[in-house]
Amino acid sequence: MVQITRHFATIAVPGERPRQVHYRKSGSGPAVVLLHQSPVSSAEYEHLLNQWGDVGLTFIAPDTPSFGLSDSLPGEEPLIEPYAKALAQFLDAIGVERCGIYGTHTGAMIAAEFARAYPERTDVCCLNGYVVATKDEVADVMANYFVPLVPRDDGSHMVWAWVRMRDQMIFYPWYRKTAASRMTFDVPSADFLQPFMMDFFRCANDGLRAYKAAFTYDAIKGLKGMTSPCYVMAFQQDVLHEHLGRIPNDMPTCVTLEGHPTPMAVEARALELFKQHCKGATPPHAATATIESRPWQAMATTKQGQIYLRRSHMGTGKPVVMIHDAGRSSKQFHLLQQMLHGQRPTLAFDLPGHGDTGASAGPQATVETLAQAISEALADLGVGEADILATGAGCAVAAHLNIQNALKVYVDPWPIPTADKAALKSQLAPALVPSWYGAHLVEAWAVARDAELYWPWFAPTHANAIQSKPSLEAGAVHVKALDLLKARGAHGPLVASALDTDVAKTLQGVTVGALNNGPHFAGAQSLSKNVVALSDDPSRYAAALAAMFRG
Hints:
alpha/beta, 8-stranded mixed beta sheet, Rossmann fold
């Protein structure tokens, strides 16, 4: 089976803030770069990375800046040229001098400008769906297409986002609900739409700049400036197929226009061209370059698959390994990592099945398998000694980590009475199965919000009301709802496994912290005689934890 690996490249340009590009990679041989459409990510090309990974070419699919897990570009102007330049900087960072290049829709516009501006680096350029818009079309799109996503206190933005994504599969443009705007595609299933929905949430409003740039790019001027082999293609059902007819006849001889019956035919033709034109070797993967000014993103390799983490190497002493709660992600430690940056190295992992590690790592999200994955990740990163911070169900994972001489801090561990375990196992982790009308998104929002008000969230009684200050700001609830959606499938097994772990047996030498007046404070006191009460103010909460690891 073809192996797809994920990596980060660090782009360091003098005078600019360092930024990172996330990319997927498969195969070996001459390089071919795949640029995705908006508003998705390089995950769009996993089928091609699988299909093409053994044909003698190296396929590299980056997340465009602001999309997926790639950082944004400096500036605000909606122009394609900065994205083409950013692509050249990315190739410099990974050591690729020349490549074939393939782009779809927004990706096609970036690919075209890259091929025009950097002919010496372009073996062949294949554009799948190329926008040649009229002035009226551009004006209409710029006025109506780019509606920002704004989290709302009632969660209604979740329904809006789902309908917006479905409509993009039904109408072009999505906001024009007329018979003339209907496309001829069958609307895909909710399961198919869900990854696109999550990518839409990832880029949110930051991705609007690249989206706008694709529509405003001077497409004809770009093609007329070509000197490398360039193939402009579209399949018959693509709304941009008719745009092939808008391209005048006086194109350079290196530019070829091709219509194809199906998406698969476009892909097959592109692969044929890459085999014909792409030469040379692709350098081996290099380790992600560090960033000194802030925590940065990386991937660690384990036998169970790759694991995503945010890390900081700045500071002295052993690194602090951070293990989040069930249904959460490394975002839970964002403020704490910032506070410790420059004082202690930190490693905040997304557990397998959670966050941006995704479902590819880990056959079963039990505390034992997750602890094994963290151990293997630490070995891959060359970390032999570490201190540990864990929260909630993550404390049960930490209890299975065999790290000698580690300072361990458990926050809000779960001492659950036996009588409550059955209900918690069956209800605490919602299934969140994608549904046709987006009800799963609303459910995730409601669960994330009620979890701030009640423990457990599914029993909203006065007796179960959480007395500490809830975090109900719409943006914060939105982040937690997305964490729940990313963790579906792994959340439940981790909860069940953590509930079966006797954390009390592992507390010797462990510092126990608990949110003052929080749902686990009394339980923490039953586990330990020395419980540190943590403030419900996020800054004070993080500062108190940071102080434990500074001493």
